[in-house]
Amino acid sequence: MKPASMLWPPRPRALVAAAALAFAGGCATFSQDGGFTAVEQALRTRTGEPAKWVRSEADAGSVAAEVKRLLEAPLGPTEAVRIALLNNRGLQAAYAELGIAESELVQAGRWINPGFRYARLTRGDELEIERALLVNLMALLTMPRRVAIAEQRFAQVQLRTAAEAMQLTAATHRAWTEAVAAQESLRYFGQVQLSAEAGATLAGRMAGIGNLPRLHHMREQAFYAEASAQLARARLAAAAARERLTRLLGLETAAFRLPERLPELPAAPRELVAAERSALQQRLDVLAAKRETEALAATLGLTQATRFVNVLELSAIHNSEAPGLPQKGWEVELRLPLFDTGDARMAQAQHRYMQAVQRTAQVAVNARSEVREAYAAYRAAFELARHYRDEVVPLRKRISEENVLRYNGMLIGVFELLADARETTAAVNAAIGAAREFWLADSALQMALTGRSPGSLASGDAAMALPAGGAGAGGH
Fold this sequence. Notes:
By secondary structure, the protein is α+β, with helices and mostly antiparallel strands. The chain is about 65% helix and about 10% strand.
């Protein structure tokens, strides 16, 4: 608890100084960017992509023009992420939380409005008029601490908003990868279905003239039926993947073009140096946990300062009686802690602080483990995709070329040639799946290094912050 002198009436000069400080704090104003610059910088540092908070008709017009320009060409992964960051309405709604949090910060830096009390009393022919100006002195004395806590909470919203933008970036990249892979698989499943149809048609004709056993004919028909079902499922999967991407992009229709295939694999996988240390320095959930502990420590200090004194009011009094000279002076009103000594609030604050300390330690453990797991999955996916690209698919193509030569030499029949074509198409489709898994693993690794794990920032009460300079409210 603070020195007992805080509980007694201050001297007039001290009151004047306190009032001057309160007036200075009372002129806190809103920042020009609403705290968005810190969010944009955090996102650009981690993804290299810009972000925009649409707050006017002019902003909306520029975003619409940029989205239209990006949609003129086939949509690559970078362009998809850029459109999502500009056009996703859910993300724009998250940006509005910055304005709400900044309003609370500005409010914390303003002096609580004074009160005025007026009384008119009569006793026979005597008239007494009492006037009093009331000032919440405790609110004035604790204003710096309350502003510091409000700044932490504002930083929390900044970090949570940056985390949502990071999540949208990763989700858009995954959706784009899945949409392109599904489109590519659909094309190959169409080739399988055409091959199966040709085989079933030929088998039917040959069975009709007695040149093919019925069992062989039925096998070709069954394969054609299964290929048609696979094509229908692939068509549905491609449409669903495209619609998921459309929602993340914030577009009203799915009328955009995608590349015909996924990007080529890199020449070599990424080699991470000090990945765990980098994650602890950059991951948003790690920063969130650290700042939560700091914010709760500040709250604990405020709870200690106001444990016994939570209502302390200063009044300037002017009484006048008729007849007679007026009375002037001041009074201090203090509520005595007879029933509520503040021990419950103190215990709650202490437990919240210890809870935050343990959560911070657990988040650090999780971050290290998730980085190792994500990198292991990334390397395994790269090796598998490279194996399909360099070994399986080239081998299947060489087998197909050999079978064509054998067919031309009348060493095999048309059904063997069709069966080989189907096997080659299946191998190519498996290679597409392996490439898809690699790019998804690449996106997951990026999030593990710089973003957050699922649910790590779910608590709305956790205090979070961006690097220094994130909070921009205040001033005169």
